[in-house]
Design brief:
CATH topology of the largest domain: Nuclear Transport Factor 2, Chain: A
Shape: rod-shaped
Strand content: 15-25%
CATH architecture of the largest domain: Roll
Number of helices: 3
Oligomer: single chain
Low-confidence stretches: 37-51
Distance between the termini: 81 Å
Structural class: alpha+beta
Largest sheet: 4 strands, antiparallel
Length: 126
């Protein structure tokens, strides 16, 4: 009888709700404060993967972004040189991107990870 009474005190509704809230708070803090993994692999439109050199902060430089864009444009069938590319730094949804355009194609590369996020085969006019 005493064991049954102790179990009822331990496993009452109030204590179960408090335990659930503590587990929920611990899970949320883990998700918020876990270290972010730096991605240095960008998936190309053809399904191939290539690595991009990043700086110590994990950011890609404009020169490396232009080299990656030339490779992407070559895979799309356009022969361009780095000097022919127009590069702009844009911000969307709190993240910065390099917007690189050539005569026939445009490309967006995320600065933080070096990941190619958008490829357009028709240049966007301003």
């Amino acid at each position: 009888m005493k064991l049954k009474r102790k179990l009822k005190r331990i496993f009452n509704v109030h204590n179960i709700i408090i335990l659930f809230c503590l587990i929920l708070i611990a899970g949320c803090t883990y998700v918020l404060f876990k270290p972010e993994i730096q991605q240095t692999i960008s998936k190309m439109a053809t399904g191939k993967e290539k690595t991009v050199k990043t700086t110590s902060k994990g950011e890609i430089t404009q020169k490396d972004a232009n080299k990656l864009a030339v490779k992407q444009f070559k895979e799309l069938g356009e022969k361009t040189k780095e000097s022919e590319l127009k590069t702009m730094k844009i911000q969307r949804e709190g993240e910065e991107y390099y917007y690189i355009s050539s005569k026939q194609n445009t490309l967006e590369i995320k600065i933080q990870s070096g990941e190619v996020t958008r490829i357009n085969s028709v240049p966007v006019t301003e």
